[in-house]
Amino acid sequence: MGPMNELPSVSVTDLADDAVLLDVREDDEWAAGRAPGAVHIVMNEIPVRLGDLPDLEPVAVICRSGGRSGQVVQWLNAQGIDAINVDGGMRAWFAAGKPLAGDDDAPRVM
């Protein structure tokens, strides 16, 4: 596996507003705000929940800033699953003015 800069990635501006993203953040981060079409699987649960991955490839993986999702992309690619990292994570999604879904009682903080 090469250095992180060789990781397949995509910019938030190249994704549809309702893109099906794999969000690997923790539950409280997910509750505070997420892409409307995202699928939530906490990073540590990925190996036992491969059957819950979005049914399309490449799988676009997102976290808060791109670090955890990058690790997940590396792991998925090693399993033969086509995955790409969302550059900048939900911070970039939020900064780009993309739509957010969230739990009603959670603060919208990226």
From TrEMBL:
Every Rhodanese domain range: 15-102
Matches recorded under CDD domains: RHOD (cd00158)
Membrane-spanning residues: none
PROSITE patterns: RHODANESE_3
InterPro entries found in the cross-reference section: GlpE_sulfurtransferase, Rhodanese-like_dom, Rhodanese-like_dom_sf
Name of the protein described by the UniProt record: Rhodanese domain-containing protein
Species: Nostocoides veronense
